[in-house]
Design a protein that fits this description.
By secondary structure, the protein is mostly beta strands. The chain has 2 domains: 86 residues, no CATH class; 190 residues, Galactose-binding domain-like (Jelly Rolls). 11% of the residues lie in helices and 41% in strands. The protein has 3 helices and 15 strands. The protein is globular and about 65 Å long. It starts with a strand and ends with a strand.
Length: 287
């Protein structure tokens, strides 16, 4: 079976498109990834020409050199409609490194080295949020999956929702925006979400840090069991966020990871407590 996957609309279609590409057993498959508006790009001259070459080869039997086409096309995004196109032989990329970044609840930072001090942070479940930031003094590229691993509890109720957003800021502290689903021009780098009662993972769709298995570093949920929580009970949860590919410049840029909650109970004084004794945020990353 020959497959040509077209991926667009980061944070929406990206998840399913790349998941399908990695799980397709046929060796004859190609991925066309982009970080712009979906229909605008899908019907653009380059994408249409690529589609025609694919169908001409497999449906008409034309020897048009299609099999020499690199298997993966990605766009390394710098900002909204500013990207560099690059071709790769596989996905995940062959030379990616899984890099853990550790949450510092006391200072609101992400660190490359493990945090040894125990701390926690609380926020209002309806209006509040928690933000962790990392200043990058050198140019890096973030391509692939990211996963947030946190220990959480709630002051009331038996469930909670977590929404994670990854943002990029320039050297002046201004947020750098990207194209998002529904054509938004001021979207973030990536998003993830989880209802904690559905945190059970599917072992067949996950891998330990550093593994080269093609599932990436995401959290694959089984979605077959519901495990509610008790008030004040600390619960470990993992949240996946699809970055796809972004570039962070050589001057000092900031990469932040805020998360917040959605209402799941009525009390106005409801709070979440996030424990980060051993928490970490990680991403596949290229220098």
């Amino acid at each position: 079976m020959a497959v040509w996957g077209f991926q667009g609309s980061p944070n929406l279609h990206t998840r399913g498109s790349i998941e399908a590409f990695t799980r397709i057993s046929s060796p004859e498959k190609w991925l066309y990834a982009h970080g712009r508006k979906k229909w605008e790009t899908y019907y653009g001259a380059d994408a249409v020409a690529t589609q025609k070459r694919f169908f001409d080869h497999y449906l008409k039997g034309e020897d048009n050199g299609w099999r020499a086409t690199p298997r993966v096309r990605i766009e390394v995004r710098n900002a909204y409609h500013r990207q560099d196109v690059r071709y790769e032989a596989r996905w995940p990329l062959a030379d990616t490194r899984f890099v853990p970044l550790y949450l510092d609840a006391a200072g609101g930072h992400l660190h490359i080295k493990a945090v040894t001090t125990e701390a926690h942070v609380a926020y209002d479940a309806i209006r509040g949020q928690v933000v962790f930031s990392l200043a990058l003094p050198e140019a890096v590229e973030l391509t692939g999956e990211a996963k947030l691993r946190i220990w959480v509890s709630t002051s009331d109720g038996d469930d909670l929702d977590l929404f994670v957003v990854l943002k990029k800021f320039d050297e002046h502290g201004q947020e750098v925006f990207f194209s998002g689903f529904n054509g938004y021009r001021k979207d973030a780098v990536a998003k993830g979400w989880l209802r904690v009662s559905h945190r059970a993972l599917d072992p067949s769709r996950n891998r330990p840090p550093g593994s080269r298995r093609p599932r990436g570093s995401k959290s694959g949920f089984s979605l077959e069991t519901q495990r509610n929580i008790r008030p004040s009970a600390i619960t470990a949860s993992s949240i996946a966020a699809r970055i796809e590919s972004i570039a962070v410049g050589a001057s000092i840029h900031t990469f932040s990871c805020p998360w917040s909650g959605a209402r799941f109970a009525r009390p106005s004084d409801l709070t979440y407590v996030v424990f980060v004794v051993a928490g970490f945020f990680s991403a596949e990353y290229r220098r």
